[in-house]
Design brief:
homodimer, 404 residues, alpha/beta, Rossmann fold, five-stranded mixed beta sheet, five-stranded parallel beta sheet, 14 helices, 16% strand, globular
Chain lengths: 404, 404
């Protein structure tokens, strides 16, 4: 499934056990909802597929949502790129007029389902784009082409009910950036043909390994990040293009969860997402020779024999022949190993996550692994992992500015 | 054209003048080639367009190149997304089998030009993909469907000549990450219908402002970055989706140029690229409340009245009506201003780059602005801005590993 290889020492101690107990408490007391999504999600799968069956006239999905309402969906869609989508998925996650128009030019209203996703129900970007769509098509009846995903009890849910729009809810105790395994992610992904049952089973397997069976390696890794204050930049270096949007999801999860004020003190860990081997020709120089303030987690995919490097020798370019006979994927993994080795020799904290393959089950495991890791580092830093008070000020300034 | 608004004090001093003189020396002594690309580039425009005219049978361009050989092209293509491409441009910048196959599935050999771009001429990823293409199509004659861009005197140039493949050269004193205004960028962009003359004129205007007319604000900004060692993470926060790939280009330029060993000391500045307003729902929390180790440059585009926010009021959601009547672009810019204000109130170093619009001329200016800024910070940190010794070790380990 997934193997985590550490190139640094993991402490095995009573401290780790104590933190593991605290995470176990957080899990058991039920206040933090995301821990339970793999099991509760499995109970909603049937309802989602019944809904999916009613949408035979829908060819395109347009997901209107920002931050936690879209990053997870984009990450999973991208990691599963090798699978053909049942429906084309568009995402409107910005009030960018060009991006908006590009999507509108590409779709026909009658065969499109617009999913308006907003946990709070009043995200200004999401509601604004929703209004633009209503103004563009002026539909008389909203029930056939709209779906709303929001917390129960929001004004947006009320609006949906008044307009006979189908609603899926997010559990109130699940934060936006931890919500991809709730309806927020499951519904659009199921409508596009991804196997959400497998996704949840993968997450459940992860929960089982690190919570039920108490494999403490994840807690020990979190502890390493939490106590090494000088290495406060945590790089995820995924070795294939399909990890690009996973990186964006990880960046939100890590930055928004761990960047917090603690009284007068400020704490945080800065996430960076890279893609190999491309970024060996970009960011790597800074990790190798710059200030040693970074840890690096490599992610690689074991299985894939597609596309062999041909045994051709080009005259004058024979020095490139040493990779002949490998598959492109094996070359990519060899580059990953070589880069990891170079960083270990420089004394950086390096670990490698090996996935057998990129399918729904492995993706579910990986997503849940990073959510747990974030919770663990949060507990160890002593912050509230699940709020985001710092983004409210800008929203207030915007309102004041525009209401003038 | 471009206005730079500073929310922190710029020092005006003899120190700045002294550094400006050093950049002027670097420019005048001719050893660093990129300074001269805007003017020398203009002399090559005609040759490139003559070549372009000979390619009437070509519908697709596949650029095979990694790092500096593709990041600049992708950045400019993306910033000019509003313009219709004359030919479809694909980029193969990784040895990822899925990305490779996706491109191959989409093209016909006879109507495709493969541009193999490698400054050194022996980049393992680029030559490997080149071989895969040769093996895939087994062309007898390479002259009609291949083009090579490389330094003069490389083995790749020799191979091109022996196979009657057209070659464009990169000046040897232009580093890969500073090369987008050389043939590396100009040729693929011209073939796709972008106005490379305007691009170069924009860069020339930037050079004229900051070098010839000695506007010292750029040097003073660089000095601010160089002396504030605690704020060693430099965020570029572009407010529209078209800046996404500009961010990747900036990350390479900044990370690879400024992350260096100085004897036993390590120095560096860590670049982060964000997109507004999406990343207000992601990374912003960390900047606001996390450790104050970041500076932020906002980039916004003034002109654009496209897509008005409709004056619709949705029952129950009236609190979102305060943006009615704005264009989406004005909303985006207001969010930019509000976020900048919030960060200034937290005491962070913030500046705003305002572009009138995103066309070739402004893009050329912006590219050159960031190249000059990188050179200036490099001089002030006392590093060699133009080499990348740290990435060689991984390459050697790869060879040793695979030759076993």
């Amino acid at each position: 499934m997934i193997k985590n290889i550490f190139r640094f020492n993991l402490i095995d101690s009573t401290t780790i056990d104590a933190y593991a107990a605290r995470i176990n408490d957080e899990y058991k007391n039920g206040q933090i909802g995301y821990y339970h999504l793999p099991s509760t999600g499995l109970k909603t799968v049937d309802e989602i597929y019944v809904y999916e069956k009613s949408l035979s006239y829908i060819k395109n999905i347009v997901l209107v949502g920002i931050g936690g309402s879209s990053l997870g969906v984009k990450a999973i869609r991208s990691m599963l790129k090798s699978k053909k989508q049942k429906r084309q998925l568009y995402v409107l996650d910005n009030v960018d007029p060009q991006s908006y128009k590009a999507v509108m030019d590409d779709i026909k209203f009658e065969e499109t389902l617009f999913i308006v996703s907003s946990k709070s129900g009043n995200t200004i970007e999401t509601i604004t784009i929703f209004k633009c769509i209503l103004d563009e098509f002026k539909p008389k009846n909203l029930s056939k082409n709209f779906l709303i995903i929001t917390d129960s009890g929001t004004n947006l849910e009320e609006f949906a009910k008044n307009n006979s729009i189908k609603v899926f809810n997010i559990p109130q105790n699940v934060g936006g950036r931890f919500s991809v395994l709730s309806a927020i992610g499951l519904v659009p992904l199921a409508l596009c043909g991804y196997d959400i049952k497998e996704l949840l089973e993968g997450a459940l397997e992860c929960k089982s390994r690190y919570i039920d069976k108490n494999d403490t390696s994840l807690m020990a890794k979190a502890y390493h990040y939490a106590i090494h204050r000088n290495a406060h930049i945590n790089v995820v270096f995924g070795y294939c293009d399909r990890f690009r949007e996973f990186n964006d999801w990880y960046v939100q999860l890590w930055a928004e969860s761990l960047g917090k004020k603690k009284g007068f003190k400020r704490v945080g860990r800065t996430p960076i997402g890279l893609i190999g081997s491309s970024d060996q020709h970009s960011f790597l120089q800074l990790i190798m020779d710059g200030i040693k303030d970074k840890t690096v987690t490599f992610i690689k995919i074991c299985e894939s024999t597609e596309v062999a490097v041909p045994g051709i020798s080009l005259k004058g370019l024979e020095e490139c022949d040493f990779v002949a006979g490998l598959s492109l994927n094996r070359l990519l993994n060899a580059q990953c190993d070589a880069t990891a080795m170079a960083l270990v020799q420089e004394g950086l904290s390096v670990d490698i996550l090996e996935l057998d393959r990129l399918d729904e089950r492995h993706v579910g495991f990986l997503i849940f692994y990073y959510e747990l890791l974030t919770s663990a580092v949060g507990v160890m830093l002593g912050v509230n992992t699940y709020d985001q008070p710092g983004v409210e000020i800008g929203k207030r300034i915007l309102k004041t500015m525009l209401k003038k």
